[in-house]
Structure formats: C-alpha cells, structure tokens
User: What shape does this take?
Amino acid sequence: MSKLKKEYELYIKRQKEFQASPLSHYWIHQEERYVEPFRLFGNIYYIGDSWVCVHLIDTGDGLLMIDAGNTGQTASIIHNIWKLGFDPTNVKWIILSHCHLDHIGCANYFRRMFGTKIYMTDVETEVMRNSPEISALQDGPDITEEFPMPDEEIREGDCLSFGSLRMNFKIVGGHTPGCIAIFFDMKENEVVKRCGYFGGFGYNCLQTEYLLDIGDTRFQARRDYVNSINRVIDEKVDIMIGNHCNDVDLIPKSKILLAGVAENPFIDPDHWREYLGFKRDGVLKMIEEETQSA
Ligand SMILES: [Zn+2]
Assistant: This one.
C-alpha cells in the first residue's frame, strides 16, 4: 500500500473514532442548529444557534459580542452578522462567558482577522493558564484549535465602557471557577430596560465523577455555584440574556417576537429570579444528597 493511502486510511480511522464519540453530535452538522439572526431588544441582536447563545450589540462605536459560539461555528456567525446588515470587521470586542469550547468558537479567528479584543475574567484566565484541560478542547473537532487567551482580564466589580454601553461585571464561579455575570441598560423607543447575563449554568461540571477527577473532593464547585447565584439573584433584571438557549426559552420566544403580535416576550422581570432560583435548587439538592450518601 502506498504511504499516501496508509495516511488516508489513518485519517478515516481517526474520523470514525471522533464520529463514534457520544459528544460528536455537538460538532457534526452544526447547520442543523442554524437560527436566523434577529433583533432581540434595542441594539441587542441574536446571532447564535439553537443551542449556544451568541449576542451582538451595536454600541454606536463598534460591535460587541457576548460569547463566540461553538467550536466550528465561525462561518455561521460571520454569515449572521452580514445578514443583519453589520460588518464583521467592526466587531471590536468579544466577552467570553467562560472557558468551555462551545463558547469560544470564533474568538481566535476574529482576533486574527479583524483585530477583535478578547475579554474574560481574571479567575477564568488563571484557570486556563494552569488547567487548560478544563476548556474540554480535547473533546472538540479541531486539533488545530488553541484556547483564545484574553487580551483584557475582567475583575470582580469592574465597570467598563464599550462605545456608549456601560457594563457592570461580577464573577459567578460554579459551572467553571470564573464565569462572568454582566449587567447593563439598553434603550428601545426611549424605554430603558436592565439586562442581566449569567455566564454558565450547566450541571455537567458539578457531577461527582467530574469533581473527583479534577481534585475537588469536597465539591466546592457546588457551594460556589450556590453562593454565586445568591450574590446576583436580587439584581433587577428586565431582560435575561441567555448563555444557552434553554436558559431563556429563546427559540419559542423568538417566534413570538418575530410574529410581532405580542409584547416582546424577552422582557420578563420575573425570569431572572425564577430561573436562577430553579438552578440553585437543583444544586442544593445535590449538596443535600452528598450528606445523605456520606
Ligand atoms: Zn460550559
């Protein structure tokens, strides 16, 4: 057999192994999760898919993105930015919610291609310096993918301006140690609404097997998760910005919004408190079961 043929067969073998992994559906045929971009409220636009949120905000002096989509999602994000009538070269800032591979997708490409500055919390940056495996890049589809270490680190309590937008930041560890929370005002037709973002809800990183594997033998991440929610649940939030679509029922709400027959369903002053409370209850249950099984 020729060397060329052997190399090709090895490649097909690796590809089959990847496709057989239970996680591969997150990366294969991402176009099946495509969502038409839409204006969510004021200058906030949705450009993510039906699983991972990506929001684009027109600050009046450049575009800001909250999160960078799934690994392998770059083309659809660029497509959506053009489709809304914006130019991807104007994306000046990307704020990463946390370090996982389904949130960092287009960050490196945007930095290299458009000079976009990447922001992440200092806590999360430290995690990536010391334990890059937490990103789960090793589960992803692209061996060339590197973690997009940030250009700027955001600290607890920071208040930063991006064009006309002023954002307040908190660090809400739990899902990962340095998840970000963001609060900002957005105006539409002279009405100002307070927006709130909580950057990481998944329980996947709170499971016993996972925590034992990373050396968190006292399940501190679960306590951090509960404490983080307690620190922000009383914030006044009229519009919750989702991290994943399920956090805010994004797909059904977008259909209502686009039908234009009802009030904007994303304006919901109860959702933040209810959803954060619901997620906290799930973790409190895990903590309760710890003591029962101990
Ligand atoms: Zn995550």
Q: What stands out?
A: Residues 114 and 202 are 31 Å apart (CA to CA).
